[in-house]
Amino acid sequence: NGMIGNIYSMGLALQALEATRKFYAPREWNCTQAFAVVSRHDYQQPMAIAQVLPALVGRSYLDAAGLDCSASPGPQVTLAQTPGVHTDFPPAPITVTYTITNKLQGKHFKHSTSVTVPDGSILLRVLEVAAAEKPQTFSFETEKTSWGPMVVSIHGLAGSTEDRTYWQFLSAGNALDEGVGTYKPHAGEHIQANFTTY
């Protein structure tokens, strides 16, 4: 469907494909389809925007080495922000099922809960509400990254680079394309956090 890896890898993948186009001809890739995926997505993280923007203006980071800044200015790109729709009514509440599962280390567990949050809430909010309602079961820790918050521990079980373990978030059995700081669950969605390996 035009997706290359996930929404986070799209920007760099598009830059790489554009920069190396002459090396993989005559094999074609559907540039239009890939750019349609990028233009439909509402990027929230500065790192994701920084990686996709060069491809959208027909450049790559490799082009930066050949820029002549003393030359007259070329075409300028203006990013416009669409104003949001404001209403006097708070968003309707939605219910999301949240499950955590560990079948890898120590005492295995699987716990589920239903969480109610305002429609449009990010996944991180779902985790926060679950942890507030049932802290003994759904406590979690995050680390700040350039891609936003990353969940590093749930229920006292932390991922490890030595063990090659991490918490993977899924919906309907599919890995989420976004992180907990940007993904917005929909009403009735079942979000799973599985302790897994890479």
**SSE order in H/E notation?**
HHHHEEHHEEEEEE
**Whole-Å distance between the termini?**
25 Å
Number of domains: 2
Strand order in the largest sheet: 2-1-8-6-7
Q: What name is given to the CATH topology of the largest domain?
A: Ferric Hydroxamate Uptake Protein, Chain A, domain 1
CATH architecture of the largest domain: Beta Complex
Low-confidence stretches: 77-87
Strand content: 25-35%
Shape: globular
In DSSP terms (H or I, runs of 4 or more residues), the helix count works out at 6
Largest sheet: 5 strands, mixed
Q: What is the CA-based Rg, rounded?
A: 20 Å
Number of strands: 8
User: What structural class do helix, strand and pairing data support?
Assistant: alpha+beta
Q: How confident is the prediction overall: mean pLDDT?
A: 83
User: Fraction of residues in helices?
Assistant: 25-40%
Name the CATH class of the largest domain. Mainly Beta
Give an overview of the whole structure:
The chain has 198 residues and is an alpha+beta fold. The protein folds into 2 domains: 9-63, no CATH class; 93-197, Ferric Hydroxamate Uptake Protein, Chain A, domain 1 (Beta Complex), CATH 2.170.130. Helices cover 25% and strands 26% of the residues. It has 6 helices and 8 strands; from the N terminus they run H-H-H-H-E-E-H-H-E-E-E-E-E-E. The chain has helices spanning 10-19, 21-24, 31-40, 46-56, 123-133, 135-138, and strands at 93-102, 109-118, 140-145, 148-154, 157-158, 165-171, 174-175, 190-197. It has a 5-stranded mixed beta sheet with strand order 2-1-8-6-7, covered by helices on one side. The chain has a 3-stranded antiparallel beta sheet with strand order 3-4-5, with helices on one face. A hairpin with a 2-residue loop joins strand 3 (140-145) and strand 4 (148-154). Helix 1 (10-19) runs parallel beside helix 4. The longest helix has 11 residues, at 46-56. The two termini are 25 Å apart. Residues 77-87 have low confidence and may be disordered.
